[in-house]
Amino acid sequence: MHITQKKNWPYLITVFGIISLFVFLPIQLVSAIELPNATSEFYYYDEPNILTPETKELIMNVNDTYEQTVEKPQIVVAAIDSLNGESIEDYSAALFEKWNIGNVDYDNGVLILLALEEREIRFEVGYGLEGALTDGKTGGILDSNVTYLSNNLFDSGLQQIFRDTAIEVATEYHYGTKATLDSSNPVVIDTLDTTPRDNGFIPSTIRFFKSLKLFNVLIIIVGIAFAVLTPNNGGSSSSRRNRTSSRNNRKSSRRSGGGGRSGGGGSSRKF
């Protein structure tokens, strides 16, 4: 008796196609969004024109002061007309990556994104600040100020959210404050004590590991294991020089993204 064996490859192709659809479709959808370019000011983007000159000046002053520090964190406020059908989580992550928010050496960028048509607001936080701006902390900041937004006081809400965020960042890096960031002081020129803290190897290493989450630790362990077990893992010196040169070029650019990456952390609220 002759038995004809069925070929399984058509089924394997079908399964692979379905898996690919779920894995790659979200990436393709996000990449298809017409994301705006950062402005020359970089630290704020105001498409619906809802920010007052005072709030814009506050955002610029605080971030200009941050530029004088070793860590150079960046807090960007972006207000857009619409998400154009995309989720605010995907949109904010894509915009964070496009603008390269944060210092590349610390991954310490923060994006505060407000979508006016959808009446949603979201924090997108870089890896380096996820320990200070946890989902619970950012959610609390939004909850404390969402009433402003619900009453269409968009400028007041965004200004206070920015202030609360700046205080958390200053506390994380132990900058200290020379002037308060409360509502009675709308424009702060000399906000932070930028005296360098101890950035020796041991203190910096301790601060780095204290900021890590369990997931980050697992990624580091897997990365180290891969590097150890992979032949020629050191790479060429030319490649290392090219990466260093590229990193230094990004760092030297004022009022632009430093190259930080989104950690996927943050909170969203509807108003």
What does this structure look like?
- The protein is of the alpha/beta class and 271 residues long.
- Helices cover 46% and strands 11% of the residues.
- It has eight helices and six strands; from the N terminus they run H-E-H-E-H-E-E-H-H-H-H-H-E-E.
- The chain has helices at 9-31, 53-66, 88-99, 135-150, 154-172, 201-210, 214-229, 237-252; strands spanning 44-46, 74-80, 109-115, 120-126, 262-265, 268-270.
- Strands 1, 2, 3, 4, 5 and 6 form a six-stranded mixed β-sheet that branches.
- Helix 4 packs antiparallel against helix 5 (154-172).
- It is globular, with a radius of gyration of 22 Å.
- The N and C termini lie far apart (72 Å).
Quick overview:
This protein has 271 residues and is α/β, with parallel strands linked by helices. It contains eight helices and six strands.
Shape: globular
What is the number of helices? 8
Helix content: 40-55%
Strand content: 5-15%
Distance between the termini: 72 Å
Query: Strand tally, please?
Result: 6
Average pLDDT across residues? Answer: 77
- What characterizes the major β-sheet? 6 strands, mixed
**Global Rg:** 22 Å
Structural class per helix/strand content? Answer: alpha/beta
The helix/strand series, from N terminus to C terminus, equals HEHEHEEHHHHHEE
Question: Could you list the spans in which at least 5 consecutive residues all have pLDDT below 50?
Answer: 22-30, 182-191, 193-197, 233-254
